[in-house]
Amino acid sequence: MEETISLYDIFKVLKKRIVLILSIAIIATLTAAIISFYVLTPVYQASTQILVNQKPNEQNQIQQQDIQTNLQLINTYNVIIKSPVILNKVIEILDLDTTTTALSNQITVSNADNSQVVNISVQDEQAYLAVDIANTVAQVFQEEIKNLMNVDNVNILSPAELPENPTPVKPNKMLNMAIALVIGLMVGVGLAFLLEYLDTTIKTEQDVEELLGLPILGFVSRIPDTNDEAPVTAKSAQPVGREKVNV
């Protein structure tokens, strides 16, 4: 006979193990909060924008062909920005204690479709250092591209600035706590059903009926202990004298 589980059975299991489920979820959320607030190091981000554009000609016009050429070069520029040619000079100028590979992992280069604006984002544990790296990368790239590709079509559009109260982009504390809460609930529910599956004890008459598949005609109540006599006191334990009987 194939065993099926109804929604009522599921609800009954969840209700029975609700304390366990909520406990695991709360513990997971608190653990994520402690790690996010006190263990993980905050990471800050700074961004600068450069414009890839040819200088106007003598008639003060930019040809459509020049714009298409710039768009095609942007993908190449994105690779050059993170190349050792640029990053080695950035490390030297800022006297950074890092490698080109590690610095490259801190830098993200992107641009919107059909846009001549390239965005350079840098993440670092120090907010001011992220700003310095972003601006230095843009400046070094603007200077070096003239020698590397014999072009002069890069201008710094928006340099990175250090705000008064920088806000870290990592870790996202609320997101981490929300994820931990969801995972805690999932683990709690899974553990509740696992414990219910492993629990083969019979506790009620309904369990017997479900196990045997037979109706219950009656059951015997538990008989309480009869050793409930009143304790014998000193007064009641005194011997009783014989009464005189007159004939």
UniProtKB/TrEMBL annotation:
Domain Tyrosine-protein kinase G-rich: 141-194
Family that this chain belongs to: Belongs to the CpsC/CapA family.
Signal sequence, start to end: none
Region of interest (Disordered), ranges: 228-247
Occurrences of domain Polysaccharide chain length determinant N-terminal (ranges): 3-92
Gene Ontology CC annotations of this record: plasma membrane
Transmembrane segments: 18-40, 174-195
Subcellular location: Cell membrane
GO molecular function: protein tyrosine kinase activity
Primary location recorded for the protein, binned into one broad class: membrane
One Pfam family here: Wzz
Membrane topology: Multi-pass membrane protein
Keywords: Cell membrane, Membrane, Transmembrane, Transmembrane helix
Highest classification ranks of the organism: Bacteria, Bacillati, Bacillota, Bacilli, Bacillales
Name of the protein: Capsular biosynthesis protein
